[in-house]
Design goal:
Blueprint lengths: L3 H18 L3 H6 L6 E2 H8 L3 H10 L6 E2 L5 E3 L1 H16 L4 H11 L1 H6 L6 H4 L5 H29 L1
Antiparallel strand pairs: 1-3, 2-3
Length: 159
């Protein structure tokens, strides 16, 4: 019988730890620690996995959270704003990583964070601007070039 009591006590401790860990996410934003949020805490606030944040750090050069002496990442409020912007561009607006980088470069990170950017990504994709139009033109040229090669090879076969 002595074995049963430790086994029943262990799940109670696990449950209480899980329950106490969940509500801690809400107060993090209200009174964020001076050190910032660790990567797991920041990932939970943003709504992505930790590996996604590590990957975004490699793809977006302006995303540089502070590191402790032990190389732990700490995200502050500005970092969280940048992460929210990146997530919005990638997940809601449908940008690729390269497209999001280009859009942020063109509009300016500070302008986007302040909400002063142009009419959004739709404006960047308008035909009046040369950037997105040239990308479409380049793709069309490649398709036409392949089509021309195919037609030339068919023409040679018919001769």
């Amino acid at each position: 019988m002595t074995r049963k009591s430790p086994r029943t006590a262990a799940p109670k401790r696990t449950k209480s730890r899980d329950a106490s860990a969940r509500p801690a996410a809400t107060p993090m934003l209200a009174g964020m620690p001076e050190r910032g949020l660790k990567i797991g805490e920041a990932a939970e606030v943003i709504g992505v996995e930790t590996y996604v944040l590590r990957f975004w750090e490699t793809q977006f050069s302006f995303l540089r959270p502070r590191h402790s002496r032990t190389r732990h990442r700490f995200y502050h409020e500005r970092d969280l704003e940048v992460l929210r912007l990146i997530k919005r561009l990638l997940h809601q607006e449908g940008f690729t990583i390269a497209g999001a980088n280009k859009y942020i470069r063109e509009q300016g990170l500070e302008n986007l964070l302040a909400g002063k950017a142009g009419a959004g990504p739709r404006a960047a994709a308008s035909p009046s601007e040369s950037g997105p139009k040239s990308a479409v033109d380049g793709q069309a040229r490649r398709v036409l070039s392949e089509l021309r090669r195919d037609l030339e090879s068919l023409h040679k076969m018919l001769e």
